[in-house]
Design brief:
Blueprint (H helix, E strand, L loop, with lengths): L2 H15 L4 H15 L5 H13 L5 H14 L2 H13 L5 H17 L2 H6 L1 H10 L6 H12 L9 H10 L3 H7 L1 H22 L12 H12 L1 H10 L5 H19 L5 H34 L2 H12 L3 H15 L5 H8 L4 H7 L3 H15 L7 H10 L3 H24 L1 H10 L5
Helix pairs in contact: 1-2, 2-16, 3-16, 4-15, 4-16, 5-6, 5-13, 6-8, 6-9, 6-12, 8-9, 9-22, 9-23, 10-19, 10-21, 11-24, 12-23, 14-15, 16-19, 17-20, 18-21, 21-23, 23-24
């Protein structure tokens, strides 16, 4: 490791350690490397522009963010929630089951765990804690755990970013996330049923079955969004980026014309908030583009690949080691940083070991999402604490059970790649 690269890493960890936003930390650390290496600092701007101009797929990120914010702003979330209450609210741990099913459905529109937790999650936490039916910590914990499904079932912003660094098919990644997302939902519902039975949480008054068609009809247009997305991509009608634009436009039509729940002032606030969120992601992407150039210049991926080949590592052991590392990093870093900065180091080794990159990508994204609820720094825990005021200690005490079953689901995906790759192969994926 050169002195310049060591200085870059020290600067990065120092800045991140004192609370500097990770995107700015990466950019400043990269500038330190360029300066010490005698390279033109303007090279940083050049690499950012080259990376952005060559990556048309990155346009999908702000478009999916807009779609998620529109879904949260209108009455779409409430209609979806009413449908879920009618469908599964009658079972043991009813509102907990509603929480998970709502996340499964809403994930097909937002692609963002934070949007899921801060939007529909806040509404259902209020429902669960009303009249003391569930403890505050339990309601917040299952909301945070179910929100991790958001970026697994398409659309998925982290999978778009993974496709950028691995040159994998976005369509294949989207399809590969469907079954793992459903598995995550099933294990969370099973744990919720067990805990609700053990603690004697009250049953909800069931919604009459004759009202289910009405709730289904109200939610049906919103339920169509993931179908439209996947048909557009795999039917050859749209590129993934164009599909993101269709998703945003469809959400706008639903909220403004069909449900009549969005004003011009509300739309303006959505665009402003979406611009801020997109800019935050963009800063991290820009920093990652420079840092990836530095990593390639130092031949770090090549050295890692040679070391792995020399050790004759079995693919399963390699996947286990990478997943442990990503899980630990997920406690302190957000998914965007892990995918853009850390994951590219392992892509060459995956190719050498014959690991399918779509399978690897789903494992990385699932693992990064689990990191969002891993104490002490899980970002989703802080998001729910901020939007509900529920003390962080109460959330952390309750989240461990859900964290355990999600890790078990991750191991199932790791040891059974056909679970991940079955749907993409059904649609012609050859990996």
């Amino acid at each position: 490791m050169s002195f310049e690269f060591a200085s870059c890493l020290v600067t990065l960890f120092l800045l991140a350690g004192i609370g500097t936003p990770i995107g700015y930390s990466i950019i400043l650390a990269s500038v330190v490397y360029l300066g010490l290496g005698g390279l033109d600092v303007a090279l940083a701007g050049e690499k950012i522009l080259q990376g952005l101009y060559k990556s048309f797929v990155l346009l999908a990120v702000p478009l999916f963010i807009v779609a998620a914010n529109i879904m949260n702003a209108g009455t779409i979330s409430e209609r979806l929630l009413n449908f879920c209450v009618a469908a599964v609210g009658r079972f043991r741990g009813g509102l907990g089951q509603v929480n998970v099913v709502a996340s499964l459905i809403f994930s097909g529109m937002s692609g963002s765990a934070v949007a899921d937790a801060a939007g529909i999650g806040k509404i259902i936490i209020e429902m669960m804690t009303k009249d003391g039916r569930y403890s505050r910590g339990y309601a917040a914990a299952i909301t945070a755990a179910s929100a991790t499904i958001g970026p697994i079932i398409p659309p998925s912003i982290p999978m778009v970013l993974y496709a950028l660094v691995s040159n994998s098919s976005i369509g294949a990644l989207f399809l590969a996330g469907i079954l793992p997302g459903l598995v995550m939902g099933m294990v969370l519902m099973a744990m919720n049923y067990y805990l609700s039975s053990k603690r004697g949480y009250a049953l909800e008054e069931p919604v009459p079955l004759r009202e289910l068609p009405r709730h289904t009809a109200n939610a049906f247009p919103a339920l169509l969004m993931p179908v439209i997305l996947l048909y557009g991509i795999y039917g050859g009608v749209t590129t993934p980026t164009e599909a993101a634009a269709v998703a945003a436009f469809y959400a706008l039509l639903l909220a403004s014309l069909f449900y009549r729940a969005l004003s011009l002032h509300g739309l303006y606030r959505i665009f402003v908030e979406s611009a801020r969120s997109s800019a935050a992601v963009g800063v991290v992407i820009g920093g990652a583009l420079i840092l990836n150039f530095i990593v390639v210049s130092e031949n770090i991926p090549g050295m890692m690949s040679e070391a792995m080949v020399g050790l004759d590592v079995h693919p399963i052991y390699f996947l286990l080691a990478v997943n442990v590392l990503v899980l630990l990093l997920g406690c302190v870093l957000d998914a965007t940083t892990i995918i853009l900065v850390i994951v590219p180091l392992f892509i060459p080794t995956c190719r050498d070991l014959g690991i399918d990159l779509v399978h690897f990508g789903v494992l990385v994204v699932v693992n990064s999402m689990i990191g969002l609820i891993t104490p002490p720094y899980g970002i989703l825990l802080f998001v729910i604490n901020a939007v509900t005021g529920i003390p962080l200690g109460e959330i952390i005490r309750e989240v461990w059970s859900f964290l355990l079953v999600l890790i078990m689901a991750l191991l199932l995906m790791l040891f059974a790649p056909d679970l991940v790759l079955w749907l993409p192969r059904m649609f012609g994926y050859q990996g």
